[in-house]
Write a structure and sequence with these properties.
single chain; globular; 1 helix; binds zinc ion; five-stranded mixed beta barrel; mainly beta; 156 residues; three-stranded antiparallel beta sheet
Length: 156
């Protein structure tokens, strides 16, 4: 293996080379705009199949069962926590280290489950907990961070 030159230091190394990549760009929400902007308002928007009537949230552009067309409709935002995990770290595009609890939430009326942040610590994030979609605390640096659930009993 050929060693990398370490610019400025005058010596070579076989170890990892620290690199930094910065990229700024505008990314459209595309066909998910109703879902993602709804999350920012604390609203759960799903897509319902025009053929089998199954509702999906997160939405699918076509029904995974029969490839039929879909129509938007709003769910209550109430759901059930299926499982959770927690860690201390940063959210994408943020620098503040924080305690983060993530969970898989099955929204009432939806066939599938969604990954979301939970406004509770790991001790309270038990399977079966009833939760309600709510407006996520700022900053939100990626649209998916707006998926924020609180225990049903703590929602306004
Ligand atoms: Zn279908």
């Amino acid at each position: 293996m050929t060693p990398f030159a370490d610019p400025g230091s005058g010596h070579t190394s076989n170890g990892p080379v620290p690199l930094q990549l910065k990229l700024n760009y505008q990314h459209s929400h595309g066909w998910l705009v109703d879902f993602l902007e709804g999350l920012r308002r604390g609203e759960a928007w799903a897509m319902r199949c025009s053929s089998c009537n199954t509702s999906w949230c997160p939405p699918h552009r076509q029904c995974p069962r029969d490839r039929a067309t879909m129509e938007w409709h709003r769910l209550s935002g109430l759901g059930t926590l299926l499982q959770a995990t927690a860690y201390e770290g940063t959210l994408p595009f943020q620098t503040e280290v924080q305690k983060i609890t993530l969970g898989m939430v099955h929204l009432d009326g939806a066939e599938n489950a969604m990954l979301a942040r939970l406004g509770v610590d790991m001790n309270a994030a038990v399977a079966g907990l009833r939760v309600q979609l709510a407006c996520a605390p700022e900053p939100i640096t990626h649209p998916a961070q707006a998926a924020w659930f609180l225990p049903e009993t703590e929602t306004p």
